[in-house]
Amino acid sequence: MKTGLIAQETGSFTDLRDGKVYKTVKTGDQWIMAENFAFKPDQGNYWAYNNNPANAAIFGYLYDWETANKIAPAGWHLPSEKEWKTFRKSMGAGWDTWSTMKKVYKQMVTGGSSGFNALFGGAYIISDKEFRGLNEVAYFWSSTRASDGQPVNYILERESGEAFITSYADPKGGKSVRYFKDKKE
């Protein structure tokens, strides 16, 4: 098993809808956005942290799950749980054990070898109508629903230094998005 990941290639993608350019990174055979998505859609639910546009410019928008599934640019998609696990496996982690969660975290943060450059954009907690976790936690949606019906999401916690997958998420709340490029058949 690999013990670490070195980003194989880097590139960029321009969203033709608004002209924003996103950094991208290739790990294994997956192209992934290396920045949080920041497209302002005409429809759907999304928030700039603390309703401050300056936060959206740095951390991207926080989207509810339905919106995140609908607004991917052409040729990109919200990754499935399986794709997140493939990404994690490329960093040498198979299971959510303490040691692998720490190793994956170190590779996913800014300056880590994966080139993912996680941004700790926090979340919008819809039930409390408040923002939480800016510069502390990064939440990323997946397209997958767990057996309990909740969307699966990938979490990085700065305090614990861990990265893990969970299904504890209200689909109406706001989380960050990193799209994966569609694979050519």
What's the structural blueprint in terms of helices and strands?
Elements lengths: L8 E6 L6 E7 L2 E4 L12 E2 L5 H7 L2 E2 L1 H6 L5 E2 L3 H10 L7 H11 L12 E5 L4 E5 L2 E9 L5 E7 L4 E5 L13 E2 L4
Overview of this protein structure:
The structure is a single chain. With 185 residues, the chain is of the alpha+beta class. The protein has one domain. It is 18% helix and 30% strand. The protein contains 4 helices and 12 strands; from the N terminus they run ββββαβαβααββββββ. The protein has helices spanning 53-59, 65-70, 81-90, 98-108; strands spanning 9-14, 21-27, 30-33, 46-47, 62-63, 76-77, 121-125, 130-134, 137-145, 151-157, 162-166, 180-181. It has a 3-stranded antiparallel β-sheet with strand order 1-2-3, covered by helices on one side. Strands 9-10-11 form a 3-stranded antiparallel β-sheet. A hairpin with a 5-residue loop joins strand 9 (137-145) and strand 10. The longest helix is centred in the middle third of the chain and has 11 residues, at 98-108. The two termini are 27 Å apart.
